[in-house]
Design brief:
It is globular, with a radius of gyration of 20 Å. The chain is built from twelve helices and 14 strands. α1 crosses α9, α3 crosses α8 and α10 packs parallel to α12. The protein is of the alpha/beta class. It starts with a strand and ends with a helix. The relative contact order is 0.18. The protein has an eight-stranded mixed β-sheet, sandwiched between helices. The chain has a four-stranded antiparallel β-sheet with strand order 10-11-14-13, with helices on one face. A two-stranded parallel ribbon has the order 1-12.
């Protein structure tokens, strides 16, 4: 039986603009090869920093390019230091959790519901204990739940953070992958004075390029640039230059539209398969992104279900700090036919 992976939160091969990126690489090597094949600033390829600065209406000195946005999270964790307290959504992306624990940070979970982070729970978490270094949140098409924080809650979260002088780290890798509905304002746009924004081109262009970015206060950007220099000397300038060329050619928006349509079909297939094969369970209904959050009947062990499932893989919710009866289902990598077969096998295992 062929294995079907509902675990991989990566774009399917057909989502990757391979031929055009190959041409972009040839172009930038011919035009600027001596720069991008050598060491450079830890802040990243200057032309791309200027483009992102224009997008967000900030000075390029506030833009830090990193080897994927997760590398920037490592730099931030090291900057804030061991022993700091960090607030996180529960559940949340597992890799930052690991990074925080590796840096001996105290992780405080904040409750979510079907609409994302609960403002009252955030207020409660701030009412006792040490002042947190920051709140880590993925407010749009969250990993792992697929949930999106609505606009009114975003304003509440911003107001609470402002009142407590709390820094928000807004992680937004999926926000542009929207299939339907209207996009709420970014937390960063609601409160630039105390919000750090990060994203990457992994989901909108290609993950192998390893190009993430952060919008930071100028002083913090300089400090993290020095830390980047000390950590890996220079970022992947070739990947950054290829992304810059891809954007400059006007290819970013058409490619985004193409990817979004490919993934919308897969999201629809996932929701249809769950309706067809499952009973007694509930799941999120994301308007974009990569993931659906499946909650099995109370008392069901997601680990045992996945151990029993024949030829299908997914990620148990406890890896993200979720309940034992939860599973993250990724629809981005597999075909609609594989999605249906994989969900059927999961349902049989339940």
């Amino acid at each position: 039986m062929e294995s079907i992976s509902l675990a991989r939160g990566v774009p399917a091969p057909e989502c990757l603009p391979q031929e055009e990126l190959a041409d972009c690489v040839r172009t930038v090597l011919g035009r600027d090869g001596k720069t991008i094949l050598s060491y450079g600033s830890g802040a990243g390829y200057a032309p791309l920093r200027e483009v992102i600065g224009e997008w967000f209406k900030v000075d390029p000195s506030q833009v830090l390019l990193t080897n994927g946005s997760l590398q920037g999270f490592v730099l931030l964790a090291q900057h804030f230091g061991r022993g700091q307290t960090v607030l996180v959504e529960s559940p949340t992306y597992d890799r930052p959790l690991r990074i925080m624990l590796e840096n001996a940070m105290a992780v405080v979970p904040v409750a979510m519901d079907e609409q994302g982070l609960v403002p009252a729970a955030l207020e409660g978490a701030l009412g006792s204990g040490a002042k947190p270094a920051f709140l880590y949140t993925i407010p749009t098409f969250q990993n792992p739940s697929g949930r999106t924080l609505p606009a009114d809650r975003r304003r509440q979260v911003v107001d609470i953070a402002r009142a407590h002088e709390l820094t928000i780290l807004e992680d937004d890798p999926y926000g542009l992958i929207r299939f339907e509905g209207e996009a709420p304002p970014a937390l960063y746009d609601l409160s630039r004075e105390n919000t750090i924004y990060c994203s990457s081109f992994s989901k909108t262009v290609a993950p192998g390029l390893r190009v993430g970015w952060y919008i930071l206060p100028t002083t913090l950007a300089a400090q993290l640039t020095e830390r980047a220099n000390a950590t890996y000397i220079t970022p992947v300038l070739l990947g950054e230059a290829a992304v810059y060329e891809f954007i400059s050619r006007g290819s970013f928006e058409p490619n985004l539209k193409r990817i979004t349509e490919l993934l919308r079909v897969r999201r629809d297939a996932m929701l249809a398969a769950l309706e067809k094969h499952f009973s007694g369970a509930t799941w999120s209904r994301p308007e974009g992104g990569y993931f659906v959050w499946l909650e099995l009947p109370a008392g069901t062990s997601a680990k045992e279900v996945l151990d029993r499932a024949e030829g299908v893989t997914a990620v148990i919710g406890t890896d993200f700090g979720g309940a034992p009866n939860t599973i993250r289902l990724a629809y981005s990598y597999v075909s609609p036919e594989e999605i249906d077969a994989g969900v059927e096998r999961l349902a049989a295992a339940v």
